[in-house]
Amino acid sequence: MTYQLRPENGLIISAKAILHEQLMAAAAVLENPPNGVDDAVHRARRRLKRARALYRLIAAAAPDLRKSENIRLRDIARQLATLRDASALIESLRYLQSFADNEDEHQALQRALSVLDIQTAESTDSAEQTMQNAAAACRNAADLLHSTDIPLRRAKAARIVQKAWKKLLARAQQAILACEEGLEAESFHDLRKATQTYWMYLSLLRGLWPSAFALKRQSAKQLADVLGHENDLAMLSAAIDAQAARFDSAETLSHLLGLIIRRQQALREEALVAAKALFGDDIGLEPAIIAQLWRLKVDDATITE
């Protein structure tokens, strides 16, 4: 099953089928990792993000369920994140190599790779147990869908989607303003989360307006990637700060942090330009269009029945 809602099948029926598929796929890859721990954790967390985004989209139809399941899936993702922290730091250091301006910065990166305590947080056995526990939690979340009834009149589906879409766009615009005003790492993290969710919404409803949504999805993906690098560098900076005593030279630290700050600044400037272009329209316009397209899709399906 593709990650795409089918208005003609009904919002809840379609959403429950997708949620079940995402959760079971996350469980399966954690139970039998085909390409190692890092890849399995990455794939599972991606599935969990997609499930959480879909729960957010249908939140008005089942607010209590959305709240409880969001907490459950968030906690699963956090447990898994600890298994990939070390790899993320290494990837960030390697990412910076192509942006080093001089030999001092290249040497500082090599020094960081050798002196930072970049180790997996858990032993192999503990990591396997964490993954198995997460897989069981995903299966429990999937099982819950079968026993949960979410009554919803078909006529209300378009309004629920419209409400969630508008709320997300408002959240994105608020994050942009916060980024402009304070340039705090948390503001850019919020913008990244909003952008990722927007990409998922566009994916879920891409059948309503394929050509326009394909362009928007591409733009959202590019912005999310930029913000992802920015977020990784913030984590790297924090790790370096926490282990500063491992560096034998303040000069090495200075070169390293200078490179990180310079690259972060460039990424933030790039992200803000792209975000304003992506989220710059009136927040009421796109949700209203989507609601109308949803209704037309349902009407067309009803006529052909």
Write the element-wise H/E pattern from the N-terminal end onward: HHHHHHHHHHH
- β-strand percent reads under 5%
Structural class by secondary-structure content: mainly alpha
Give the total of beta strands.
Answer: 0
Average pLDDT over all residues: 91
**Count of separate DSSP helical elements:** 11
Shape: globular
Low-confidence stretches: none
Helix content: over 70%
Distance N terminus to C terminus?
A: 23 Å
Oligomer: single chain
Organism: Allorhizobium terrae
InterPro entries: CHAD_dom, CHAD_dom_sf
Domain CHAD: 8-295
Protein name: CHAD domain-containing protein
Describe this structure in words.
There is one protein chain. With 305 residues, the protein is mainly alpha-helical. The protein has 2 domains: 1-83 and 120-151, Four Helix Bundle (Hemerythrin (Met), subunit A) (Up-down Bundle); 88-117 and 153-305. The protein is 78% helix and 0% strand. It has 11 helices and no strands. Helix 2 crosses helix 8 (185-204), helix 4 crosses helix 9 (210-242) and helix 8 packs antiparallel against helix 9. The longest helix is centred in the last third of the chain and has 33 residues, at 210-242. The protein is globular, with a radius of gyration of 22 Å. The relative contact order is 0.13. The mean pLDDT is 91.
